[in-house]
């Protein structure tokens, strides 16, 4: 079903195709004294051992403090450390485990690594939680410390460095000063002596298609652990889903904000390459066989995206944005701008809470102002009253940041119908709950915020409490 503000509802269905770019792998047993294990290897990946010997890095092989990982033009690697932390390395990257100690002792633990070129994503483990001061990523222009649990960092073609925090907060420091970042914020660092500068451009961390070369390093090995020569495997099969919903908000040719939703009822829609680093493109066919297509501008690079879980999870949520594109209805195209989306699997009616109140905290999102430009969604919450039979109401609070200044709106009223979220006045809002007992919420919004103009974006929330509705 497609929902658009002030227009009759149309019945549609949604079938989603996703490139599975982030497969999951089982944990491996580590040798005593190891820092971590190579959990995933694709393409040309080598390890420079502490003794100066370079050899192909094989999946399942242990890594030690003092060793470096080098990825080639099509090489990628993922390392799971003994404290549970993860680091994903992209092509043309040199990453050194400079000083790693995991003794379950905050005074002795160390996670000190160097990113000398290329790009990486990281999720911190127990060392960063036990002693944040002992978790550092050093680059040629800055040092990254953590207050949270996830970030991306990558060198740009001009030699500058881009850093984006994805979960909680980080601090970026060099000789010019320090800048603290909260979830979704980014900085650019141009030299070791110039302070990091806030930017709306996310870190340059490409996610190429997981194609492998004829020599598959690590995924298939000989008895002595060396890479086997195998035929080039076929591209991974796309996963097709018919039970996902999409909410999208954009600015049309008349500069009006429009919020629409597409639900899995009676037609077909297609989402391509969501997890491969490309902007979202999807189709929907309604009961009259009219096709609606959303197409991003070819070559678009200024985009955001994020996920909670993977598309096969019952409570999967994806969100993001792209700057310009087209909406094509029945073959007739119209330009659209500032496109933000959420996607997920709506909670079945039988799993919706009854006579309960749910509270939700912001997990991720995007923000764009028609007067201030691109910004960040830095805070937000939902209080939802589930009265029964899938019905209910609630309210939404949002805090955005533009140019270092926070702008907030509170008390936006929400209507709940089955698992769907709408707003009846004042703001364009559409979304849904997902997961058992509505464990997550996802929506797109366009609302006036004092001194910030009309602000649009996507917002995803994680349930923090579920209790009886207060009397």
**Low-pLDDT segments:** 4-32, 208-220, 229-238, 266-277
Mean pLDDT across residues: 79
Percent of residues in beta strands?
Answer: over 45%
Overall strand count: 41
Can you describe this structure?
- This protein folds into two domains: about 1-20 and about 240-470, no CATH class; about 35-230, Jelly Rolls (Sandwich), CATH 2.60.120.
- The chain has one helix and 41 strands.
- A hairpin with a 5-residue loop joins strand 5 (about 45-50) and strand 6 (about 55).
- The protein is an all-beta fold and about 475 residues long.
Features:
single chain; 471 residues; mainly beta; Jelly Rolls; 2 domains; 10-stranded antiparallel β-sheet; 9-stranded antiparallel β-sheet; 1 helix; 1% helix
Topology:
Elements: E1 2-4, E2 12-13, E3 16-18, E4 36-42, E5 45-48, E6 54-56, E7 62-63, E8 68-71, E9 76-81, E10 86-89, E11 94-101, E12 110-117, E13 119-123, H1 126-130, E14 135-138, E15 143-146, E16 150-155, E17 161-167, E18 170-174, E19 177-181, E20 186-189, E21 197-199, E22 215-221, E23 227-229, E24 239-241, E25 245-251, E26 257-262, E27 271-272, E28 281-286, E29 291-296, E30 303-308, E31 317-329, E32 332-344, E33 356-365, E34 367-369, E35 373-388, E36 391-402, E37 405-417, E38 420-422, E39 428-434, E40 440-449, E41 453-468
Parallel strand pairs: 12-14
Antiparallel strand pairs: 1-26, 2-28, 3-24, 4-7, 4-9, 5-6, 5-8, 8-11, 9-10, 10-13, 11-12, 13-16, 14-15, 15-18, 16-17, 17-20, 18-19, 20-21, 22-23, 25-26, 25-32, 27-28, 28-29, 29-31, 30-31, 31-32, 33-35, 33-41, 34-35, 34-41, 35-36, 36-37, 37-38, 38-39, 39-40, 40-41
